[in-house]
């Protein structure tokens, strides 16, 4: 059965990636979009596009009925769910089939069996797949779960039974943490998956997160395409993925691959799927879960196998046999992927929103960038914070890693905060460079959180020169009836200027003086000469104290953004009447982004200590705790539970304790 047309029930980079493969097969492609994504790249890339509803996912991408109706209206033959949203919704898969459409994924029964962690674990134990000791029973009371956790022995992992992706998951080390951890995990699980059911698992120390990509057809053939190491995680969400696993041996791959295929056969699987394991430092491995969809990190498998996983999905969904056997699968070289997020690593990785002023993905040998964004696009608070994936392939692991560092540094995004500097720093960390990363790497490497290096005086001077030259050029542009050769001429030199710049949350006074060939900039104790400055086509070039510098740039009135290596920094010229956010300690606790207030933990008159949780804010599918910056007393509460708040709104006011 040939599939002639495909509706992609997703957005962003995965929608664009699926469209490209479908188009290469000669298929007509249909995109769907919310109001927030009306002008998104995936909408423009598809042959047709259908509006689903308003921005929130619950009103658009999660409306299975609207997606199926869009497929009917456009005469689509099949629906590809991508990942996230409806991709692991068994009811949606059933409804697609009932509508006479082909669902690009496994049967609804397989999704349902693996969608509940408790049921999946029972099935895997029956199939002889090694599982982590834990509890997946019917007693879901807080006290019952706490008692089971004590019997298992701490540390223990609390997990949402109905979902994954790090939501509804808590690691507990101490008995007194159990009540609040269970409550938070249950609340997050209910909001993310509509079910508060939890399971418990013994926490495996110094473990690696290793997953096997499997592919199965409707004729009973099941193969695996090797493994991926996804050990580097933050809040149980993957940050770096690579293939193959650095510590994998042929014997271990054979045993884990067999277990993965057994897991797939146990639920009569068909299509692409991933069986996830924890691999202990003693070589023992344990089933975690099965993701019944395409994974975010599938490109690393594609690069080491030379296979197109979406093409294979479409092939088996059409009823054909898998075109390859296990003996045909060969792993060549090494591939590593990082996820570019709109987030602030220095501020507890809070998601960022705003307009993309410039997006310029890296290019080069062995580099691949999967994206679904464009310059000028608004990044809303409604969806996951991932913007793009940067992937590198090389003949050796170290070649792939060094290429990826270059790819991260060369992918430039201005306009909102991203994790670029964090990714480059992490890729250069000795533990990761040596292939020894486990799930505890980020806690060990950044115990106090990630701190970005301070901008150097030379680069701050370059930014000041860009602003000064831009201001001068704007002034020249307003000059009327003056010959071009006379612009800038004066019988006396331009008077020096003293500006206040704001960068990295700090104010810096600079002294700027025009020179015959450039600008003399005084930054703190440093005197910097910037000569031959040229800014054109989002790039600036200058000789800074005798050294030629060239870097990406974006200029706006009174602000310049520069990319230096992996650092992205904004420099604002502070003018009278412009509010500075550099000062801290005002006692006003503000929303760092638009979000939904899940919980208000204090009331007026209450005494709080530094670090106490004041507000729990949900944004971009995660819950964030806003804490007291000092010991004090709550003087006012301006937020209410379940209320939507805009970025910058004052939620709580504190007065310092005498």
From TrEMBL:
Q: Which GO terms describe its molecular function?
A: ATP binding; ligase activity; metal ion binding
Where does the source fall among the domains of life? Bacteria
The scientific name of the source species is Aliishimia ponticola
Q: What PROSITE patterns does the database record attribute to this sequence?
A: ATP_GRASP, BC, BIOTIN, BIOTINYL_LIPOYL, CPSASE_2
Could you tell me which residue ranges the ATP-grasp domain spans?
Answer: 121-318
Positions of the Lipoyl-binding domain: 577-655
Identify this protein by name: ATP-grasp domain-containing protein
| Cofactor(s), names only, from the UniProt record | biotin
Domain (Biotin carboxylation) spans 2-447
Keywords in alphabetical order: ATP-binding, Biotin, Ligase, Nucleotide-binding, Transit peptide
């Amino acid at each position: 059965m040939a599939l002639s047309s495909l509706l992609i029930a997703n957005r962003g980079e995965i929608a664009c990636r699926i469209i490209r493969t479908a188009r290469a097969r000669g298929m007509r492609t249909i995109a769907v979009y919310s109001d927030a994504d009306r002008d998104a790249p995936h909408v423009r890339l598809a042959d047709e596009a259908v509006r689903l509803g308003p921005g929130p996912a619950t009103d658009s991408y999660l409306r299975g009925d609207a997606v199926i109706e869009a497929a009917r209206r456009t005469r689509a033959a099949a629906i590809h769910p991508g990942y996230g949203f409806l991709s692991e919704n068994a009811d949606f898969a059933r409804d697609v089939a009932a509508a006479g459409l082909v669902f690009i994924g496994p049967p609804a029964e397989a999704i349902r069996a693996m969608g509940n962690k408790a049921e999946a674990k029972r099935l895997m134990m029956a199939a002889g797949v090694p599982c982590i000791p834990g509890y997946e029973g019917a007693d879901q009371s807080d006290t019952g779960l706490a008692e089971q956790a004590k019997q298992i022995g701490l540390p223990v992992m609390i997990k949402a039974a109905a979902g994954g992706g790090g939501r509804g998951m808590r690691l507990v080390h101490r008995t007194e943490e159990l009540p609040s951890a269970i409550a938070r995990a249950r609340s997050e699980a209910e909001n993310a998956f509509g079910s508060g059911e939890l399971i418990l698992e013994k926490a495996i120390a110094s473990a690696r997160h290793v997953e096997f990509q499997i592919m199965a057809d409707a004729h009973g053939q099941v193969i695996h395409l090797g493994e991926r190491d996804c050990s580097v995680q933050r809040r149980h969400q993957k940050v770096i993925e690579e293939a193959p696993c650095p510590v994998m041996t042929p014997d271990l791959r054979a045993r884990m691959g067999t277990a993965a295929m057994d897991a797939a056969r146990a639920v009569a699987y068909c299509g692409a799927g991933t069986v996830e394991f924890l691999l202990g430092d003693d070589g023992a491995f344990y089933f975690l879960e099965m993701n019944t969809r395409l994974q975010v990190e599938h490109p690393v498998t594609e690069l080491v196998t030379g296979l197109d996983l979406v093409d294979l999905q479409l092939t088996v969904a059409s009823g054909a046999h898998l075109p390859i056997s296990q003996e045909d699968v060969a792993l060549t070289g090494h591939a590593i992927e990082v996820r570019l997020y709109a987030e602030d690593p220095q501020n507890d990785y809070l998601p960022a929103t705003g307009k993309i002023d410039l997006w310029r993905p890296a290019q080069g040998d062995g580099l691949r960038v999967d994206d679904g964004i464009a310059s000028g696009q608004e990044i809303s608070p409604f969806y996951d914070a991932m913007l793009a994936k940067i992937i590198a392939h090389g003949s050796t692991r170290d070649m792939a890693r060094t290429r990826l560092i270059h790819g991260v540094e060369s992918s430039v995004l201005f306009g909102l905060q991203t994790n670029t500097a964090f990714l480059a720093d992490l890729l250069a960390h000795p533990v990761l460079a040596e292939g020894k990363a486990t799930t505890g790497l980020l806690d060990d490497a950044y115990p106090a959180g990630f701190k970005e290096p301070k901008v150097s005086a030379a680069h701050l001077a370059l930014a000041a020169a860009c602003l000064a030259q831009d201001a001068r050029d704007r002034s020249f542009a307003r000059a009327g009836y003056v010959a071009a050769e006379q612009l800038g001429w004066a019988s006396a030199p331009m008077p020096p200027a003293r500006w206040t710049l704001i960068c990295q949350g700090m104010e810096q006074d600079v002294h700027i003086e025009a020179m015959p060939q450039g600008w003399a900039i005084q930054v703190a104790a440093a005197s910097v000469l910037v000569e031959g400055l040229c800014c054109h086509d989002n790039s600036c070039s200058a000789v800074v104290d005798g050294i030629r510098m060239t870097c990406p740039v974006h200029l706006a009135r009174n602000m310049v953004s520069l990319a230096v290596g992996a650092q992205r920094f904004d420099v604002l010229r502070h003018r009278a009447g412009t509010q500075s956010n550099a000062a801290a300690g005002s006692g006003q606790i503000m929303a760092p982004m638009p979000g939904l207030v899940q919980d208000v933990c204090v009331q007026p008159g209450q005494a709080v200590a530094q670090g106490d949780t004041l507000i729990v804010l949900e944004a971009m599918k995660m819950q964030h705790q806003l804490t007291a910056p000092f010991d004090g007393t709550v003087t006012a509460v301006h937020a209410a539970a379940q209320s939507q708040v805009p970025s910058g709104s004052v939620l709580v006011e504190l007065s310092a304790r005498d």
